[in-house]
Amino acid sequence: MNWKTIKYNRYLYPALYILIIVLFIAIPYITAPYTIILLSSIFMYISLTLSWTLFSGPTGYTSLATAAFFGLGLYMAGILGDSVPLIVAVICGGLISFILAFIIGAITLRLRGIYFTIFTFGLVELIKHLMLWWEINIVGVRGRFVPRADNATVFYILLAILAALLLTTYFLKSSRYGMALSSIGSNEEAAIHIGINVVNLKIITFASSAFFIGLTGTIMATRWSYIDPYIAFDPFYSFLPPLMAIFGGLGNLFGPLLGAAVFSYLQETLITRFPYSYMLIFGLIMVITILYLPNGLIGLYQTIRQRFIGGKHADTSS
Amino acid sequence: MLEVNTLNVSYGNVQVLWDVCLKVDEGEIVALVGANGAGKTTLLNAIAGLVKPASGSVTFLGEDITGYSSNAIVERGIAYLPEGGRLFPDMSVLENLEMGAYLKNSWNKRNERLEKVYEIFPLLKERRKQLAKTLSGGERQMLAMGRSLMSGPKLGMFDELSYGMAPKLVMEAFKMLETLRDNGITVFLIEQNVKQSLEIADRAYVLENGEIVSGGSCNALLESDHVRKAYLGL
Which of A10-19, A220-229, B94-103, B113-122 has the lowest mean pLDDT? Predict the structure, then answer.
């Protein structure tokens, strides 16, 4: 890299980011309500996918517990309702998910590979039935109404969650903790040998990922207005984040982000155009992606870029 | 520097180490030799805090470190290089080295330590951007050693340094140990390659079925009938 590009990047990127932020903040003033709702949905999926990637990406521990933390967030909105300001409810939703993930992590993050994955999947069912039992036997009614919030508020809170999540991911990646997480994924034994406290690091990261999922759940509840355990703890939300991340391409920050954005936009469009066969089309897209784009959209972009720019070998010059 | 006192280790009902006592002094190269399954790796794991001993104690620089967690022990200045090196295959040489300085006190000093490691192993500097999995066997061993130096250890413990290496590389690996000693690091190594490790070490212990059966200067061991018969085939 020569000095020209360095100088260029130094001014270009911050300017670009500021432009994007201003554009997003202006969106509720300049577009139709449908666009705001669509964008909110896309933001939700991006948040869930990035939260999932925060922990499962570098460590290689595939978590299927997203629906559990998302559902807890949704329920927090139902339980707190109008009694506290919306923003307080959202933070409570994040905290309760953080605490649960911390406890679950402390118990299960000694498990590796498929055992961890299966346990996290079981967790969703466990909490669902626990909530169901509680609602029927203790509360007496199944399901709750959630007070609605207006579209612009939901949009801004989601935007704020997403910004916080992006910043967290970015700083984690450039810190020694991010590298330590990757080293766990690369060779956990070696990570222990060089003195990384792998158990603590995994628990904290898993809980942080759950925190963002919980935040997202609480704010989304205000859009749905009614929840019960079956709606809140739908395993669909456990499977989507890994699928979206794979669709975009794991390995760098933009893969899961792009994957979630494209995937959720496709979903919204297909649902309205082909309400009966959209799941089928969806499945086909997924199969094609796994067969032909093993590195996701980012992988495709890199292949095309390489074809035009020409092969570039690893830089071994000193 | 390192003292192991009547250490007993069991896996479930099976006792692996029986009343092991040994001592490593500062500036020495000490070897622990023994056949497969004698309990050599278990002993290192117990010293490094990866296995909890049933009884006995481990003292390092006067401090009782028995039962400490592995990260606390790395922090005290013991680097443990397990068998086969255990690198991070999908990370670059530089990243592998940096991870060696993960603990907080080392992290701030990582750049000066990196220079030091590059000085000892200049090849690693050339290869710093390469992924660890693309290195050759000898280079991997170098990287593994370099990484263990990044934590700024006072004592380096090496498990089966010669494991799976060509004879010429084994010689080089042993020479690296002498380089480490010259750089102020005490070396405790574990070997099945009895002859060569006895040639390089100052003192050695012989571990058989979980018990230390003899110990002393390497010359004496090389001449003892038991060692000659059981390990050197003479």
Answer: A10-19
Among candidates B50, B102, B129 on the partner chain, residue whose Cβ is nearest the Cβ of A196: B102
**What is the CB-side half-sphere exposure of residue B100 using CA atoms within 13 A?**
29
Predicted ipTM of the assembly: 0.78
| Structure token pair of residue B67 | 């039962």
Of the partner residues B82, B98, B125, the one whose CB lies closest to the CB of residue A179: B98
**Phi/psi class of residue A310: alpha, beta or left (left: φ > 0; alpha: ψ in -120 to 50)?**
left
Out of A186, A191, A314, closest to residue B90 by CB: A186
Is residue A55 a contact partner of residue A206, using CB atoms and an 8 Å limit? Answer: yes
CB-based contact, A187 to chain B, within 8 Å: yes
What confidence tens digit (pLDDT) does each residue in B31-62 have? Answer: 998 888 888 899 999 999 999 999 999 999 99
C-alpha A15/C-alpha A12 separation (Å) is 5
Rounded to whole angstroms, the Cα distance separating A249 from A243 reads 10
Distance from CA of B26 to the nearest CA of A (A): 22
The structural domains of chain A, with segments of one domain joined by +, span 1-30, 33-317
Expressed in angstroms, the distance from the first to the final Cα of chain B is: 34
Question: Residue B174: what pLDDT?
Answer: 85
Average predicted confidence (pLDDT) for chain A: 87
Q: What are phi and psi of B212, to 5 degrees?
A: -80, 115
Do residues B33 and B231 lie in contact, with contact meaning Cβ atoms separated by under 8 Å?
A: yes
Query: What are the φ and ψ backbone dihedral angles of A79, each rounded to 5 degrees?
Result: -70, -45
Residues 233-262 of A with CB under 8 A from B: none
Average pLDDT of the segment spanning A24-45: 87
- In A81-197, alpha helices (H): 86-108, 114-134, 151-173, 176-186, 188-193
Say yes or no for a CB contact (<8 Å) between B86 and A189: yes
Inter-chain touch B74–A176, beta carbons under 8 Å: no
Question: Tokens at residue A261, please?
Answer: 């954005």
Contacts of A318 in chain B (CB under 8 A): 125-126, 128
Q: Say which residues have a Cβ less than 8 Å from residue A176's Cβ, sequence separation at least 6.
A: B98, B102, B107
Residues 196-225, chain A: which have Cβ within 8 Å of B? 196-197
User: What is d(CA A294, CA A264) in angstroms, rounded to the nearest whole number?
Assistant: 19
Cα distance between residue B129 and residue A12, in whole Å: 27
pLDDT tens per residue, range B104-138: 888 888 899 999 999 888 899 999 999 999 998 88
Query: Residue A313's pLDDT is what?
Result: 52
pLDDT tens digit string along B160-182?
887 767 777 788 888 888 888 88
